[in-house]
Protein: S-acyltransferase
Amino acid sequence: MAPKQRVYQVWKGSNKFIFGGRLIFGPDARSLLITLLLILVPVIIFCVFVARHLRHQFSSYDSGYAILVVAILFTFLVLMLLFLTSSRDPGIIPRNSHPPEEEFRYESVDGGGGRQTPSLQFPRTKDVIVNGHTIRVKYCETCMLYRPPRCSHCSICNNCVERFDHHCPWVGQCIGLRNYRYFFLFVSSATLLCIYVFSISAYYIKVRVDNYDGTVWKAMKESPASVILMAYCFISLWFVGGLTGFHLYLIGTNQTTYENFRYRADSRNNVFNQGCLGNFLEVFCTKVKPSRNNFRAFVQEEVRRPPVPVTPREHELDDLDGDRRPKVEDDLDIGEDLLKISQRRNIEELDEDIRSRGSNGPPHNTSEPDSILSLDHRAPTIRSDARRSSWEKNESLEIAQQVLADSNVTESRSYLTTSGNVPTRAGRSL
Structure:
């Protein structure tokens, strides 16, 4: 017996798991290494070439150690927020194994020739009420579910994420409902770290100018690390600082990056806006919702769902979809029934005409009714031959059509006419 698998082992998304499914990352988790280098390398240079020389530059002899300690603690905070952002479930909605059957509906579709065929229809959107306003949500073909409001499907992670903001390649993870708070804190703390390193590096150049009675240019030549750190932090501030300001605006207006870029030109009324203070409280002071997924749980065997109950609108669909006799055999049966009806009708009419003429009439010719009756023996043969092979079914269908054509001819009213004193038989085709 094969060992049971856990959810993360059969996960259909593009995520990567480590430590037995305890940590979840995006498919581009390797970009985290670049982000770590961009943070750690400048901080190490700062601690070695700048902060170390400022340990004894203040009135209190050892107070300069605070600069080194603050830099280390600040860096640790940034790395911890980065880890919380990239290694946790951003708000993934578990995908369904079946479409929601309660949303199925059956409609008649023109199948050609005026024939209405029942067809299974599935609505791609539906309306929900949010804060007294109607919001249209879409159906996700991949996850087979209706996305909740503000949810979107990430094409990189291949998951539907609640309150989807964007997929950040620098953290290698989607940003959604459960990690947006940590993402903003990471970006804002990285901004503050850049400002801190830039400021202390500039202060160190000033200390060298004051202590050695030199110029700024000479101090910069004697401490190139400070110059490099200032240039690096200045450039980084354009990115992380600008990102922090942009997300402050989004939080204040209760928008996501996805909504801002997609619906900016639509001038839609934001039904989620609770006011600036309420929006900030929603992001930073509400409890983070627990994950909808237990990645370490064992996969449960899927229970077969009962068939959808048949409604009066579905009777025709049930007849079409059921395991019925092949269409060739049905056509042959219909042809046999029509043939027998026509035979019975012609024989009865001939008998009635003979009785009406009296017993003095000449005996009628029974060869044609006999030949008609002989056709009755051919139909079962055709039907039995139709069941032998697919090739014989097609051939039998052609014979059945010929039999139907013959039956239409024999179904024409037969009657007796008299020409002079000699009764004759004549037929009129319908």
